[in-house]
Amino acid sequence: MNLDELRAECLQCTKCGLSEGRTKVVFGDGNPTASILFVGEGPGQNEDETGIPFVGRAGKLLDDYLTAVGLCRQDVYITNIVKCRPPQNRDPRPEEQAACIDYLRAQFRLISPKLVVCLGRIAAQKMISPDFRVTRDHGTVYQKGGVMMMGTFHPAALLRNPNNKPDALNDFKKIAEYAAQFGAEKL
Ligand code: URA
User: Fold this and answer.
1) How far is the CA of 36 from the centre of ligand 1 (A)?
2) In this predicted model, what pLDDT tens digit does every residue of 90-143 receive, in sequence order?
3) Residues 68-93: tens digit of each pLDDT
4) What fold characterizes domain 3-180?
5) Which atom of ligand 1 is nearest to the CA of 154?
């Protein structure tokens, strides 16, 4: 199965209750051969309406961070732990994450990134470690099954607490260094 076929399957998904409230499935966006995969939590209202991840205020901030370090969406791939919007933007429940995780696993296999960047606690706890704490562990690179993983601040959290913006920028600088290294390896 390729990424388009997987997307088509995901768009039909009714594996959990989130499917009942969605306008659009938010599968993912960006470069399907990217070496860096960003994983957020789940779609918000703007994403539910457009079917594209990180297009609201938080998404604009994510774009700003990418731009600040010389990257753009087409250099990376962006998706979420759950592909349908949780009502009132509540945290996705463990059973909803469990129902959706095989899509992310399949995306991961098809994209085959070298670095996975978890945006916020929900993604980092699911992907890196259940006791991941963003303020303590952000920017640290973990090796998991031959792939590097890093957690950083969720852009929506940065909108609420701008004090963490300098730390987030440092994490993105690190991400850009990896991107340059991966690019050089491909040449
Ligand atoms: N927040 C997320 O975690 N993901 C999105 O796609 C948008 C906002």
Assistant:
1) 17
2) 999 999 999 999 999 999 999 999 999 999 999 999 999 999 999 999 999 999
3) 999 999 999 999 999 999 999 999 99
4) Uracil-DNA Glycosylase, subunit E (3.40.470)
5) 3
For residues 70 and 176, the answer to whether their CB atoms sit within 8 Å is yes
- Between the CA of 43 and the centroid of ligand 1 the distance, in Å, is 5
Contact 73, 28 (CB under 8 A): no
Q: Where are the beta strands (DSSP E) in 28-91?
A: 29-30, 36-40, 77-80
Q: What is the model's pTM?
A: 0.97
Q: Which tokens sit at 9?
A: 């399957």
Residues with CB under 6 A from ligand 1: 26, 40-44, 47, 53-54, 58-59, 80, 156
Instruction: Determine whether 24 is exposed, middle or buried from the number of CB atoms within 10 Å of its CB (0-12, 13-18, 19+).
Output: middle
Domain boundaries, the chain: 3-180
Cα–ligand 1 centroid distance for 10 (angstroms): 17
